[in-house]
Amino acid sequence: FTTGYSFTRLDTDIAGSRIYGSDYDVTDPTLLPTLGATDEGFLALTGGSELYQHVLNLSLALTPWEGVTIVPTLRVEKYDSDGVANFIETAGPVVAGAITRTPMANTRSRDYLDVSQRLEIRYTGWTNWVVYARGEWLEGEGTLSEREYDLTTGALGVGRDTDSERFTQKYSVGANWYPLRRLNLAAQYYHKQRENSYFHRFDTTANTGGNRYPAFLRDQDFTTDDTNLRVTWRPRPNLTSVSRYDF
In tens digits, what is the pLDDT along the chain, a chain of 247 residues? Predict the structure, then answer.
């Protein structure tokens, strides 16, 4: 039986300016943006973020019969992050020959809890062979909150509160063959499915027309079938060659 726990705290600070004008990274803030309506610079950016992450791993290795190893594993991850940014928009209406600039504030918070399980069975009863089968499952849920305010008027420009759920399952079978001391071959097939669901409790956009940010996605479904072959050759103790083919 093995176990491990890790805790991570990360603090970041951001600052700077980026101006879009007649050229890349121009320094004249009086220039109007010319790269299109979706490209907009910023001035006097300040802010930062804070992240907390907890990870717990539990693993048990069982050998009920000679050559057979069964390894169940559990992994739990808790993630929380918060961020804020204050900046001045470079774009804005022109009043009396000058660009009217707007001070903005952006806040974001995200948290999720993922629980992963894995069950692996290995057989080493054949000389120079390892055969295995593996199943992996993940269930997770989380929340995401975003706000962007006009600091002059207090108006809310972008807002979103989203709850999410995800479920992943992956099933693998494979074999490793060691015909020579410095040569081994591996073959594997796996089938993987991932389902994501998003529940938008609050959204300031109508999700129609060209402006569908931020609460656009409702469901995502991914299916992957993968077959891969690998050859590892060590012609010298300090030289390794790996060839791999994936379909």
Answer: 999 999 999 999 999 988 766 666 555 555 555 444 455 678 889 999 999 999 999 999 999 999 999 999 999 999 999 999 999 887 666 566 566 778 999 999 999 999 999 999 999 999 999 999 999 999 999 999 999 999 988 899 889 999 999 999 999 999 999 999 999 999 999 999 999 999 999 988 876 666 666 778 889 999 999 999 999 999 999 999 999 999 9
Tokens for 38, please give them.
Answer: 């979706």
Question: How far is Cα 214 from Cα 145, in angstroms, rounded to an integer?
Answer: 11
Instruction: Tell me the C-alpha distance between 89 and 73, whole Å.
Output: 49
- Cα distances (angstroms) measured from residue 234 to each of 65, 74, 127, 221, 244: 33, 34, 20, 40, 15
Specify the pTM. 0.79
Q: What is the Cα–Cα distance from 197 to 222, expressed in whole angstroms?
A: 12
